[in-house]
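Re-run with default settings, no changes from the original entry. Doing this only to confirm the output is reproducible before filing.
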Amino acid sequence: MKTTKKYNSLTIPIFFVLNISSWICIGQTNIDSIKFIKHGTSFGMCSGYCFNETKFESGLITSYSKSWGKGKNNANPDKTDTLLIDNNKWKVLVENVNLIEFNKLPNTIGCPDCADGGVEWIEIGTSKKKYKVEFEYGKDIEVLNKLLELLRHKK
């Protein structure tokens, strides 16, 4: 006796809709997968607070600054400031991350802090890994332009 499988008339269309929706979501970022976004700058030959890094997390912004020239006479002790961030602002940041394109970038772009031009970076931590990209201070990186604009103005 020959056995045949009968499919509900909705089975095949649902299968295709699910597959198409998964293909569309490949380039998008899942808000739950990104745990933090760090943005920072540093200058090798400077005085004052030459290293600045801001860590954005769901509900929290932490800024850390330090100066070069440690010792008893250092007029600029390390400082850390913590602020609450509105969840909608966090969501906007995360929505402007394309993890696939970000992870394709090399760890270093250009010549950061050459001739004391400064270094800027973005580091993104997910539930699976951390990835950091450094580049020349103030430069635009096409894949990161929208995110950079947001990060540079949220401090």
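The CA atoms of residues 43 and 80 lie 18 Å apart. The chain has one domain: 34-153.
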